[in-house]
Amino acid sequence: MTPRTTCLDAEVRTALRAVGAAAKRGLGDAGLAELVQVRASQLNHCAYCLDMHLGIAREQGVDGRLLDLLAAWEEAGEVFDARERAALALTEAVTVLTEGFVPDAVYEEAARHFDAGELAHLIGLISAINGWNRLMVARRIPAGGTAW
């Protein structure tokens, strides 16, 4: 296997951190922000981000049952409330883009639960974590990795 770089430009790192932090502040729900980041990281198979955001979620008091069932949130019944379900559906639609775009029904459901500013920040957060996931997965940075 070709060795992979652990180098990440400081300006890129600072910019991505700033985007994520601004999106989290604008969303105004730290627990939901962590659920979204964990779910995107699951879909992208990013062990580094999963490890980090699961730890943050636990520190912030996110219900362990939500974290345990997150990979199967659609099948978890009422464990996730309607707002969480809308955010997770949007996370999956933006992350996977199976149809090449975010389906109108998914976007419209999210818009029922988030005002325009919150929705903009939610999409920004999903985009930021996807950027981080891709940076870490492309370079195969492991869970708990420190050289990046």
UniProtKB/TrEMBL annotation:
Domain Carboxymuconolactone decarboxylase-like: residue ranges: 15-92
InterPro entries to which the protein is assigned, alphabetical: AhpD-like, AhpD_core, CMD-like
One Pfam entry name: CMD
Organism domain of life: Bacteria
Alphabetical list of PANTHER family matching this protein: 4-CARBOXYMUCONOLACTONE DECARBOXYLASE FAMILY PROTEIN (AFU_ORTHOLOGUE AFUA_6G11590), CYTOPLASMIC PROTEIN
Identification of the protein by name: Carboxymuconolactone decarboxylase family protein
Species per Swiss-Prot/TrEMBL record: Streptomyces parvulus
